[in-house]
Amino acid sequence: MRTAGCVILFFFMFLSVSSAYPGWMRQYKPCKQLVLYFHDIIYNGQNAANATAAIVAAPEGANLTILAGQFHFGNIAVFDDPITLDNNLHSPPVGRAQGMYIYDTKDTFTSWLGFTFVLNSTKHQGTINFIGADPIMVKSRDISVVGGTGDFFMHRGIATIMTDAFEGDVYFRLRVDVKFYECW
Ligand SMILES: *[C@@H]1O[C@H](CO)[C@@H](O)[C@H](O)[C@H]1NC(C)=O
Ligand SMILES: *[C@@H]1O[C@H](CO)[C@@H](O)[C@H](O)[C@H]1NC(C)=O
Ligand SMILES: *[C@@H]1O[C@H](CO)[C@@H](O)[C@H](O)[C@H]1NC(C)=O
Fold it and tell me: Rounded distance, CA 121 to CA 116, Å?
């Protein structure tokens, strides 16, 4: 009798402990997902017509036409990049990625991203706001999707970003897999 009581007691203790940490078991599934690409062409003194990004801050001893040494630490770039549905720079843009990146790590290539997707196409109207640390050398990394407007009113989630291509310090293309876990 007493052992049975103990077993039941432990069963309920287990239940209450496991329900206190639901994250252990829950499988999160996005309520909405979209994959987009954006293309960044950094001004290098010769490509004014095509450049979509400008270095606006550089550490002492560096300049605004070439990213600084020591993992670009201290550089800040502002960008207004075309967004496309596929990985072709010349595809019709569906919006602009606008914001900045800050190189904020001295011993590896990491930038801090803060930008908005301003989408204006037949498929999507609205904005999506992104923030987070981008360890560029890692193949696939996650940043936060902190909110949105229009079609993305009050949406939040995670964006998985991958460097799809790069050419020296002048061009790179990011693949952004936006996964919303909160949709309205
Ligand atoms: C700008 O892009 C066009 C088309 O890709 C290319 O032909 C041209 O050489 C580029 N101009 C500069 C200044 O990079
Ligand atoms: C910018 O810095 C780079 C590297 O130190 C140097 O080669 C280049 O001449 C500088 N450009 C200007 C415009 O000062
Ligand atoms: C979206 O595109 C339409 C058609 O090109 C244009 O009239 C409108 O001003 C654009 N809206 C924004 C917010 O850029």
Answer: 15
The closest ligand to the CA of 67 turns out to be 2
- Which CATH architecture describes the domain 30-182? Beta Barrel (2.40)
Question: Residue 95 C-alpha to ligand 3 middle, in angstroms?
Answer: 10
Best CA proximity match to 52, nearest among 133, 137, 132, 172:
172
What are the residue boundaries of the structural domains of the chain, listed by start? 30-182
pLDDT digits (tens, 9 = 90+) for 131-178: 999 999 999 999 999 999 999 999 999 999 999 999 988 999 999 999
Atom of ligand 1 nearest to the CA of 51: 14
Q: How far is Cα 72 from Cα 106, in angstroms, rounded to an integer?
A: 8
Among 63, 70, 75, 169, the mutation site with the greatest number of ligand 2 atoms within 8 A of its Cβ is: 63
Q: For residue 80, which of 69, 66, 96, 93 has the smallest C-alpha distance?
A: 96
The predicted model scores a pTM of 0.83
Ligand closest to CA 63: 2
Looking at the chain, how many residues does it have?
Answer: 184
Please check whether residue 161 is in contact with residue 139, taking contact to mean a CB–CB distance below 8 angstroms.
no
